[in-house]
Design brief:
- By secondary structure, this protein is α/β, with parallel strands linked by helices.
- It has helices at 3-13, 56-86, 93-135, 145-162, 176-183, 185-202, 229-245, 274-294, 305-326, 364-373, 377-392, 407-410, 415-426, 446-458, 475-480, 500-515, 528-534, 553-562, and strands spanning 18-19, 22-23, 165-174, 208-213, 216-223, 248-250, 253-255, 258-266, 300-302, 330-339, 345-356, 360-363, 400-405, 433-437, 462-468, 485-488, 520-522, 541-542, 551-552.
- It has an eight-stranded mixed barrel, surrounded by four helices. The chain has a five-stranded mixed sheet with strand order 4-5-3-8-9, with helices on both faces.
- Mean pLDDT is 78; it is low at 1-52 and 569-591.
Length: 591
């Protein structure tokens, strides 16, 4: 189907499209009938706005002139004829002048009325064009949201009468913004136009295609009565997905994109419930499309009730997170960090917990992704840090606190200033704080991150690289960042009690830390056997379940009081680190 035909057909009928097998029989917006070439003088014509199309003054002059011409013209014309033919008498000058005046008035009135006729035709054409533009997308020739609403209502009404099912497809291009930014808006417009053409080619007759703006398209697809709606819509979606995978070439540029597609089917609705059926159809297709995006680029998903339940639960969870920030429900829990040489408690790592009134304690791996997705993780993080600093003020001055920061935290341009301000307000020495950088942070603008980390390091804040040994870590990055410590991922010691290769790998990692003059913290030490195996590898600190469970602020103060590690008490000697022969109950912690 040619591009011009695709636009011209939609422009002509508002929402009528064309298909390679013939015109699509979708609902149409009928244009107003054209005005006649000659307009009755006495009949009252109305234009598209409902006003009379004739000019009363011009019409009055024209009618009066015609009546005067009829009443006096015959007398004057008769006398003129007799005068020129037989030489009898002379025409009355007054009557002659009146006839000439009437003729002039008739000509003037008719010209004025003809001009008005042309003006009405132009206005009618402009209003028809405006009506078409109000319901179509000028770039692609597809419907817009208003046009789709009209098409949806009309199509549902027809399906109530004729039976059958109606499917909704929501199609969203993946990485379109990136292509638009790289190649320019001209290429981006060409991509959208070609995408609309390919989608339209893959739709059956009677379908309606709309673009809601950006790179999102919606299609209404009538399904054959009696056929399996799921199988039919799956076939259509697969056909469209394959068509959109083909590269698009324009003006020397070649762009390859994929699309995420979600579908939903509305069974034959009741006539009194068309509005809710239309809203549900588009909402369900939207839910399915976002599920397809979650599964990866270029995926297709058909709506299921489980998707909607998951979305509703997610929305409720997001709302509860917002309310939890206001009610200060996000509290820190702490994990001990132990000096593996002396067995002393030297620091703690903060873990976030959400004490939800309805859900109970919720771990960070549940609420952090949601909070980052809705853009409020910064508020959650600040609440946790302030509470942790308040707890930290009661600890012995040599105890440190390790906190994780996410890529979202570091995108805040005021991150360093906010952190240092909270340290000053809590009267905490910057050297007691250790900021743990996760690997995801290194995927951002490295030069900008390095500048941020150097700023924090210059203020005395310590920096460590978390989860080293499992994800990609460049030695050049380790040297470029002002790190004070690296932390080994717990996955590196899985199977250490039965696999000699694990010890070999740990020895190599220990050599890297030694050569870079970076002390190493070993995470995930969960059993006394692991603790024994790890001795001698040069790790300065350790943490894990063998040293005790996570503790909230009150529980931690009680434990620290036992070992004299509160700020207002003298430190007490700490026992040695338990060995492999120690009972597991005695390995709750070393201090």
């Amino acid at each position: 189907m040619a591009r011009q035909d695709f636009q011209d057909n939609r422009a002509r009928a508002g929402i009528e499209g064309t298909h390679r097998t013939g015109p699509r029989q979708g609902p149409t917006i009928e244009a107003a009938p054209p005005l006649p070439l000659t307009m009755p003088i006495f009949a009252g014509q109305r234009n598209t706005t409902g006003e009379y199309s004739h000019d009363p003054i011009s019409l009055g002059i024209l009618v009066a002139a015609v009546m005067l011409f009829i009443s006096s013209g015959s007398t004057v014309l008769t006398r003129l004829a007799r005068h020129f033919l037989y030489g009898e008498g002379h025409p009355d000058p007054v009557l002659t002048n009146a006839v000439l005046l009437n003729i002039a008035l008739i000509i003037f009135g008719w010209r004025r009325y003809a001009d008005l006729h042309r003006e009405v035709l132009i206005r009618r054409k402009a209003e028809t064009t405006a009506l078409r533009l109000a319901e179509t997308d000028p770039l692609t020739g597809c419907l817009n949201r208003r046009g789709l609403d009209a098409a949806l209502a009309t199509t549902l009404s027809r399906h109530v009468e004729l039976g059958g099912n109606l499917a909704g497809l929501l199609i969203d291009l993946d990485r379109f913004k990136q292509a638009n930014d790289v190649h320019g808006h001209k290429v981006g417009d060409a991509i959208l136009s070609e995408t609309a053409r390919r989608i339209d080619t893959g739709l059956p007759q009677g379908s309606a295609l709309a673009r809601f703006g950006g790179d999102e398209f919606t299609a209404l697809v009538p399904l054959m009565s009696g056929a399996d709606p799921s199988g039919e819509i799956d076939l259509i979606s697969t056909r469209i997905s394959k068509a959109l995978v083909e590269p698009i070439r324009h003006d020397g540029h070649t762009v390859a994109l994929t699309a995420s597609i979600g579908s939903a089917v509305a069974c034959t609705p009741h006539r009194d419930d068309l509005s809710s059926t239309a809203n549900d159809l588009l909402k369900q297709a939207d839910i399915a499309m976002y599920q397809a995006k979650k599964e990866g680029r270029g995926h297709y998903c058909r709506f299921t009730p489980a998707m909607e339940r998951e979305m509703l639960q997610r929305c409720r969870l997001e709302q509860e997170i917002r309310e939890g920030i206001e009610r200060n429900e996000f509290v820190p829990c702490y994990e001990f960090q132990i000096d593996l040489t002396s067995g002393a408690i030297v620091g703690l790592e903060m873990h976030g917990r959400w004490l939800s009134p309805s859900r109970g304690p919720v771990t960070a791996d549940v609420f952090v992704p949601l909070a980052e997705n809705i853009g409020i993780m910064g508020h959650v993080w600040e609440s946790l840090i302030r509470n942790a600093f308040a707890d930290m003020a009661t600890w012995a001055p040599h105890l440190t606190l390790a906190v994780n920061v996410s890529p979202g935290d570091l995108r805040d341009p005021w991150f360093a200033q906010k952190l240092l301000k909270m340290l000053m307000e809590a009267r905490i020495a910057p050297g007691r704080l250790e900021v743990e950088i996760v690997h995801g942070c290194l995927d951002q603008d490295f030069a900008l991150l390095r500048s941020l980390f150097i700023s924090l390091h210059n203020q005395g804040v310590r920096l460590s690289l978390d989860d080293f040994g499992t994800l990609y870590s460049s030695l050049a990055q380790l040297r470029a960042l002002p790190l004070d410590r690296i932390k080994i991922d717990p996955a590196c010691i899985v199977g250490i009690d039965r696999d000699e290769d694990v010890e070999t790998i740990l020895g190599a990692i220990g050599s890297v830390g030694h050569n870079l003059s970076l002390p190493i913290t070993m995470q995930g030490i969960d059993t006394p056997e692991m603790l024994t195996k790890l001795r001698g590898h040069g790790f300065s600190r350790g943490q894990g379940k063998v040293f005790g469970p996570l503790l909230n602020g009150a529980e931690l103060r009680r434990e620290l009081a036992i070992y004299g590690l509160l700020h207002d008490r003298e430190d007490k000697p700490a026992p040695d680190v338990p060995g492999t022969d120690a009972d597991e109950n005695n390995c709750r912690r070393t201090a």
